[in-house]
Structures are given as C-alpha cells and as structure tokens.
Amino acid sequence: MNNEDLLTNALTDKSKKWFLDYVNAWGVVNGESNLDSFIMGFRLGANFAYEAFVETKAPFEDLLKE
Hints:
Low-confidence stretches: none
Structural class: mainly alpha
Radius of gyration: 24 Å
Mean pLDDT: 88
Number of helices: 3
C-alpha cells in the first residue's frame, strides 16, 4: 500500500489515472477470484458434511458383497 501511494504521488495526471484504473481493475479481479475460491471451498465442505451425516449409501458396496 505504501508503494502504491508513492507511485501514485510520483506519476503525472494521465499516468496516475491509468495506474489507478489498473489498481481498481485488479481489485475487482482479485475480489471475484477470492469469492469463487470461497464458494468452491464451501461447496466442498458442504459435500463432505452431507456425505458424512446424511447419505446412507455405503461407500464400498463391492466389498460388502463378498
């Protein structure tokens, strides 16, 4: 953040606008990526919980036949 502030203060008006547009776009991309990672992790955890506590299907049915 300190480097961003130093760079912002050192740039000219046009370059500063481009840099801030880049920083804002990167923030949006990073936020979407973090949200996607959270959703995928949550779904994975929910599936683990579902399989552990709700599903009644035996995981190794082939072994039960012997």
